[in-house]
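Q: Okay, next protein. This is Maleylpyruvate isomerase family mycothiol-dependent enzyme from Yinghuangia soli. I've checked the sequence twice, so it should be correct. Can you predict the 3D structure?
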Amino acid sequence: MSNDLQYLVDAWEQSVRALSDVCHGLTEGQWNRATECPGWSIRDVVSHVIGVELELLGDPRPIHNLPSDLAHVRPGDEFSRYCEIPVDVRRCHTAAEMTGELSYVVGRRLRMLRDSDCRPETEVRGMMGRSTPYKHLLRSRAFDVWTHEQDVRRAMGRPGGLDSAAAQISRDFLLGQLPRVVAEDARIGAGHAVVFDVHGPLEFMRTVTVGPGGRASIGGQVPLAPLAVLATDWETFARLMCGRIRPAAADLKVEGDRQAADRILANIAVTL
């Protein structure tokens, strides 16, 4: 296995084991505690992780009819319904069943990943049966598991993992979404630059510059007169981009064009 693939596998393993550690010893009531992931409890978050990894192992998906009263499952949204099925199936599972299945699935998946001879560009089967490069799949799994690890940590008041390898992979993934957020979703015009100033365990400053034709790029050079500067801490930045917190409730500072900043913040969530 190449070093870059090994790094992604190790990051995934570290984060999924951290998730397992945080869940160890939770009472039945604590498993039902709400997280910032819309509509999902700690049990639901862990069920999602289990369900995705089982699918990637090649296990058949459960045959299950969803209730019609799940407010967080948007009508016509095939992906949210797809994600909800392995979650809803496990809503009656006990704490022991949840921790036992998570441990079993992680062990199986880790053996599969370590034994794989796939190259970074090898096309493999991902979620919903869609083909994706192996490296992209590993990166997305590290990001997804880290995001849900943080959901459970916040729900239980047990912070940690904000500077882990999976956190760094997640940072890079989220930064890669900013050009689209700024140029396409927030419709910031050509010739303008927006600075994101983030402090905390993962500290960085990045500038999204919109060029001719609305094509945006991201880099580390800060212009003298940006259209707007958005400053916050790393955890808040991640929560905003993952749809865990509304901009109005976030601890952030805005300088420059407030209307432009508000348009960016209104579109900053790239996943739920």
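A: Here is a summary of the prediction. The radius of gyration is 19 Å. Residues 102 and 114 are 18 Å apart (CA to CA).
Q: Noted. On to the next one.
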